[in-house]
């Protein structure tokens, strides 16, 4: 409506950027900005510092694809983890969701997406080659395909199984119980735990 | 559940701070953090800079209480505004909401809350003294009490009216009624009664 200025350009810019954060729209961005203005020392300044430090230090694990501030990541270098089991996920968000479920003590491999010919995403655009290499090099005994229950996810699972055909690794997938078309990241811990426990041969 | 480390402490800290932003909970904070990690240069670093700059420059207008990066604020120094009309609001968020509505070209006065004896909020905790002073000094002709339609809001409105008793300023308040686009079925009886009493010719 009005193009009159009601606050400083620095605050307007902050609101514009906050509106791009998933979960916040233009209205909640204004609300968030005002809240942070009130909590300048407790929230606004610390969040600025945390974002700046994270932006500087965040890196992608060259082994598994997790987001961390060290490479290899905290999971890949954790000696208490069972390295014989690899859980294959599409996205880092899925890795974190499975970790929150706390059902497995395995390691992970982040594909970085799913095969999608229509979107021009082929095998070379995903971390599939490095997965096959890992299975060979690390002596993986079980590979759990924890991909989304979507057409693309299942297509990707089949493709990976084909690539692993002669390695002798046991390939399993999450139990049904994941809603068809559902995304892992939106599921509760109980469902994810049950799906992991009831995993079946692929 | 698990206390195992899955990512760097800098990223965990970022997620904890993001979870304190209104509109984001713990789960959406993780989602937001992962999104920003992917958009490090387009979103994470610019947001860090915007927060830092806003935290450094933001100030409260010493005249009206608006949040801005200059004092007096952009509204108080705008020569096109009708200074004879003052809109009294509880909070800066209300000021911004009214500005978005774009219905008035007035100036504002932010109380900073409402009278609430139970919470220990008395007249001296709000910007009421400065409001009365402004009305005297600026020759205000109309004071619009745009406080919330709550018990505390109305108590505060009455208190302010008492304080202004002999200044001759016209004191008005927002009309009660059905919100535009609102469904009668969802409104409380008080709103419906008020809307009926204040009915207008069709
Ligand atoms: Zn890793
Ligand atoms: Zn002002």
Automatic annotation (TrEMBL), chains A, B:
The gene is recR. A zinc finger (C4-type) spans 61-76. Keywords: DNA damage, DNA recombination, DNA repair, Metal-binding, Zinc, Zinc-finger. Belongs to the RecR family. It comes from the Bacteria. NCBIfam families: recR (TIGR00615). PANTHER family: RECOMBINATION PROTEIN RECR. SUPFAM superfamilies: Recombination protein RecR. This is Recombination protein RecR. Residues 84-179 form the Toprim domain. May play a role in DNA repair. It seems to be involved in an RecBC-independent recombinational process of DNA repair. It may act with RecF and RecO. One of its GO terms (molecular function) is zinc ion binding. One of its GO terms (biological process) is DNA recombination.
């Amino acid at each position: 409506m009005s193009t009159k200025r009601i606050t400083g350009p620095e605050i307007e810019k902050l609101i514009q950027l906050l509106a791009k954060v998933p979960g916040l729209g233009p209205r909640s961005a204004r609300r968030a900005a005002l809240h942070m203005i009130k909590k300048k020392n407790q929230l606004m300044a610390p969040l600025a510092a945390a974002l700046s430090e994270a932006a500087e230090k965040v890196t992608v694990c060259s082994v598994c694809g997790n987001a961390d501030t060290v490479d290899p990541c905290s999971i890949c270098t954790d000696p208490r983890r069972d390295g014989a089991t690899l859980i294959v996920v599409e996205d880092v968000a899925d890795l974190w969701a499975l970790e929150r479920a706390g059902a497995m003590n395995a390691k992970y491999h982040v594909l970085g997406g799913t095969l999608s010919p229509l979107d021009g995403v082929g095998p070379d655009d995903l971390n599939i080659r490095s997965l096959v290499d890992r299975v060979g090099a690390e002596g993986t005994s079980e590979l759990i395909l924890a991909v989304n229950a979507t057409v693309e996810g299942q297509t990707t699972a089949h493709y990976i199984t084909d690539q692993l055909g002669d390695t002798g690794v046991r390939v399993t997938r999450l139990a049904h119980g994941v809603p068809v078309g559902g995304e892992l990241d939106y599921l509760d811990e109980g469902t994810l735990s049950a799906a992991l426990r009831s995993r079946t041969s692929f």
